[in-house]
Amino acid sequence: MKFYHILFFLLLFTSLSISSCKKDDPAELSPELSFKSGNGYTSSDVTINFDEQVIIGLIASKNKQTNIKLKNLKLILNSNNNVETLVDTTLNSETISVNYQLPAFSSETSINLLAIVSDDAGRTASVSLNILVTNAKPSLTFKEGTGYTSNDVTVQTNETIVVGYNAKYNEITQEKLKNFKLIVSSNNIPFTILDSTISIEIFSKDFEIKLPSPSTIRLTAIITDDAGRTASVSCNIVAEGGGVKVVKHTEVELGSWNDEIGSFYNAQENTIFNVTEAAANQAKVDLVFYKGDNDDNSIAAPIDASLETILTFDISNWETRNATLFIKTEMTVEDFDAIGEYYEFPEFVEAEANTKIVNMVNGDVLFFKTEAGALGYIKVVALYSRGDLGEFEVIVME
Questions:
Q1: How many CB atoms lie within 10 A of CB 4?
Q2: Which one, of 17, 156, 131, lies nearest residue 77 by Cα?
Q3: Which of 84, 160, 356, 396 has the CB geometry, 3.0–4.6 Å to 376, for a possible disulfide?
Q4: 268-277, long-range: CB within 8 Å, 24+ apart, which pairs?
């Protein structure tokens, strides 16, 4: 009987001992520690660019099964075996919440961050993560070589240059390219001329740039990847005034024989005169539109003798008859339309010029020089077979 009592006592003691050891297991009674996540926090292994900020958030609390308070919190940085304690805080609380912003890194490195919290019983908990600091941005470069402009440049107005770009995703992060943007800034005012959404690894595009007037612009290209990282390149383009400032007059409608509309025209003032008005402003009349007996749809200078055959004009009695000269050109309508605010006129060869151009058709472009020396172009827009009317556009020195 004593033997069974002794055996029962030993079994009870053993059971209590095992239960007590399990309850006091340091791993189960350790404090709790975790990284904060979301809202800009880094909570797991990550690759960052040199200039990117990293914010580490830590939350620690005492073990729920004990009343043992927290005693100390450490945050340790190990970069290429160089160990630095970033945080070493003495505690006397049940919970702690802290944020820490890592300093910026200027060179490639691998970092291990280790956070350790301990309580008054000496029990600890820890969390860690790794950070790779490298060039994590996508790449963006100018295309170089024959035909491409890749640096600051000075050009003439209306001169065309080609600017090309090559972009590539970062092979380390493998974040695809998401957006390409091209911005022109003039007088410090930016204007986006292209904003393209993409989802590719490699991007390539060329642009033709032509400035119609003297100006300075800054051309900036920006590539963005799926992580929001960007790369950019810029160049300055200066357009110098190659030529003189010109004005363009559109919907210039002249009549022939029709006194109400008027056949007489001053190019720089863009003024149309009928017969009576022209006679009163003889010095201002640069040209006359008419249909003669043999010359269909013609433009002539007031000095041209063919106008004297049109009796209603009564031009033979004028005291001032300007000697405007004309040359029929090979210029296309597209070239005419492309002329901007400034233009460098070619040499006007008077030996090749006449005081009238006859039998014009739609699309003809005439080069003219007024008696005062103003150069310009006349484009024939529409000639009407009935009504003796003509519509023109005129470009002339301002």
A1: 8
A2: 131
A3: 396
A4: 268/370, 268/374, 268/396, 268/397, 268/398, 270/394, 275/312, 275/313, 275/314
If we measure between CA atoms, which residue out of 27, 15, 254, 46 comes closest to residue 123?
27
CB 216, CB 236: distance < 8 Å: yes
Q: What is the largest CA-CA distance in the chain?
A: 159
Q: For residue 297, how many other CB atoms are within 10 A of its CB?
A: 22
Predicted local confidence at residue 363, as pLDDT: 96
Q: Phi and psi dihedrals of 369, rounded to 5?
A: -135, 120
Distance CA 81, CA 226 (A): 32
- Please say whether the beta carbons of 291 and 297 come within 8 A: yes
Beta-sheet strands, E only, within 41-169: 46-48, 55-61, 70-79, 82-93, 95-101, 109-119, 124-133, 139-142, 153-156, 160-168
CB 356 within 8 A of CB 310: no
Amino acid identity for residue 295 in this structure:
D
Residue 253 near residue 171 (C-beta atoms within 8 A): no
Closest to 134 measured CA to CA, from 103, 174, 106, 112 = 106
pLDDT tens-digit map of 273-305: 999 999 999 999 999 999 877 778 899 999 999
| Residue among 238, 221, 239 at smallest CA distance from 230 | 221
Model pLDDT for residues 334-367, shown as the tens digit of each residue? 999 999 888 889 999 999 999 999 999 999 999 9
* 195 burial type by CB count under 10 A (0-12 exposed, 13-18 middle, 19+ buried): exposed
Q: Which residues pair with 231 in a beta bridge?
A: 223
| CA gap 398, 245 in Å, rounded | 6
Over residues 206-249, the pLDDT tens digits come to 999 998 778 899 999 999 999 999 999 999 999 987 678 899 99
Residues 192 and 182: their CA atoms lie apart, in Å, by 6
Phi-psi region of 90 (alpha: psi -120 to 50; beta: other; left: phi over 0): beta
Q: What is the rounded distance in angstroms from the CA atom of residue 7 to the CA atom of residue 20?
A: 20
Neighbours of 48 (CB within 10 A): 21
> Average pLDDT, stretch 329-337?
96
Amino acid at 267: A
Q: Whole-angstrom Cα distance, residue 287 to residue 293?
A: 19
- CA-nearest of 150, 153, 176, 147 to 165 is 150
Distance of CA 378 to CAs 131, 259, 375, 388, Å?
A: 69, 22, 10, 18
